[in-house]
Specification:
Largest sheet: none
Helix content: 25-40%
Shape: elongated
Oligomer: single chain
Strand content: under 5%
């Protein structure tokens, strides 16, 4: 990996969950794995991620072949929200009355057994 390169070979690499990363690196070549290990070492340097990457690199060096797959497919990316409200105004509950305390039109009243000034 050249010193000028500041992007990893996987799109959105920095935001990938570790479980997803384990599957996404299976389609990378040996050289891409070396680039990714160098990138991770100089940026995040996360132990668990480096272990996954080094383990996959060892598999590739032992004769494993990169699996097929489209790196553009990203199931971990949620769809954009549809917007709007699925609730119609007719489906709302009835308007309730506010509680009597703190409303200027209905001042609070003392309890029946309370007598101001004593006994």
């Amino acid at each position: 990996m050249s010193a000028e390169r500041s992007t990893p070979p996987l799109a959105d690499y920095d935001g990938l969950p570790v479980a997803t990363l384990r599957h996404r690196v299976r389609s990378l070549t040996t050289e891409q794995m070396r680039d990714l290990i160098a990138y991770e070492s100089s940026h995040g340097n996360r132990f668990q991620v480096l272990e996954i990457l080094k383990s996959r690199l060892a598999e590739l060096e032992a004769g494993a072949r990169p699996s097929g797959g489209d790196q553009e497919f990203q199931p971990e990316t949620p769809d954009a929200p549809r917007g709007g409200s699925a609730v119609s105004p007719g489906g709302q509950g009835p308007a309730g009355n506010p509680p009597p305390h703190g409303v200027p039109a209905q001042p609070a009243r003392p309890k029946g057994d309370f007598r101001p000034g004593g006994s």
